[in-house]
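Ligand: 1-deoxynojirimycin. Inputs:
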Amino acid sequence: MESNWWKKSVVYQIYPRSFNDSNGDGIGDLPGIIEKLDYLQKLGIDVLWLSPIFDSPNDDNGYDIRNYETIMDEFGTMEDVELLISEAKKRGIHLVMDLVVNHTSDEHEWFAEAKKSKDNAYRDYYIWREGEGSNPPNNWGSFFSGSAWEWNEPTQDYYLHLFSKKQPDLNWESDSLRKAVYEMMHFWLNKGVAGFRMDVINLISKHPALPNGPVHPGQLFGDGSPYYMNGPKIHDYMQEMHQEVLSRGDILTVGECPGATTEDAALFSDPNRNELSMIFTFEHMSLDSGPYEKWDLRALHLPKLKKNFRKWQTELHGKGWNSLYWNNHDQPRIVSRFGNDTDYRVESAKMLATCLHFMQGTPYIYQGEEIGMTNVVFESIEDYQDLETRRMYDEKMANGAVHEDVMQSIYVKGRDNARTPMQWDDTAEAGFTTGTPWLKVNPNYKTINVQEALASPNSIFAYYQSLIQLRKELDILTEGSFVLLLPDDEEIFAYQRHWQEEMLTVYCNFSASTRDISCVHENESDVVIKNYETLEWHDNTLTLRPFEAVIFKFNKNA
Ligand code: NOJ
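Predicted complex:
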């Protein structure tokens, strides 16, 4: 494998539960993924990242792992995984696993042991504290509503869970826990996986005193994040993991890092520090929320988004490496979020893809993004399956919120927007299953589906194919520096990339208005890709129509 192969790769994320069901039980599975490998090869991606496929009671759809080395019954068997790895390899596709080691399921045998008694051998695999009188040890709230602490009767103390109470946090201070994690990682590398996406990895080092956090306006619990995000030993752990596991090959590693700054990202991804290949930032995903919670809806102010990308593109250039994403299984659909999912769905989906894929970093495509899948509106809260959504709804309603307001924030930000089944065709249940899907399909599958996309040369799918191809062909995409143009413009996202004598200019219209842009260097014949069939070009003026994207490439010395 070429070294740093992941710099020129495009990753496709599969949420297995919602991708393709091969046996009619309403739940996507591994044979279902294998059936669709030709489709993924056609798209042109290099890497498949699978959200967790391990044995789990599914409190959080697999992000609560009961056994790291066995496969969830609904998904299939270890033989299916082995077949998937080898079939993917035949098509030039590497497999990346989700490594969830900030916490396990409370049904993992480590926790089943640990909770029995204070002198159990697994006790120090988790984080235990005495209460403060009749209260929990500190005021931290969990990400899924309620306190971050749960009482354990047999030991008469509390355990920490930053997520649900069925997801107890692991104690990375424990040498034996860390060793067990590294052994498990070797187990998967020995099976032939090419890397790991690491779930909330920058939360694994907690400040040992676990102090109370500030209680922000409108919040019921304290914010412990200053004491568990990017904690004191995080980089020691990453370097140890590198030395013990990752140094064995050129492995793709991407750390999910909420709250990480560009300085943190450089520490994680500087190749000389031997930690990770790259991290996922959340900064660009938080610009349409209030300061304290994602449910607090705000309109996006485009200059903020552009300046945020400028910061990441310039501050990691030559120092570390970016990941580039708009979507994943936790985020609403980008075409509904920053695009226009009614009149300009196709145009805006292509424009958003253009804007992202011409930056420096490794692009990630989330299932369905390549056909422009949209957010969903279910009238009843009962139709939502995500525990984050359900707990938030219950908590807010119990505290006097208005049903319609809470539903509105779910329509805009709920995680089930990303998790409705993949839309393969216009037959019943979008061709995802012959049974009843675990989460309802988006009713728009009759018009938005893979079959329709594959039939049209102008589809969003075809456009993604071209973007992926261009990443292979143009070194400037991987190597070039980034210069933001028109930083304060509220509608146009424009930037340049520079490398040797080459230059790219990228013009993306994030609005439904028509705008004239004066182009000094560009020529009509320099267009690399565009999302309208024709170009509106007169006397060095480019007229950008609603959600139009145009890219020019030229030689600076010519
Ligand atoms: C981040 C994952 O992406 C999300 O889906 C999950 O709920 C939490 N981590 C907890 O594992």
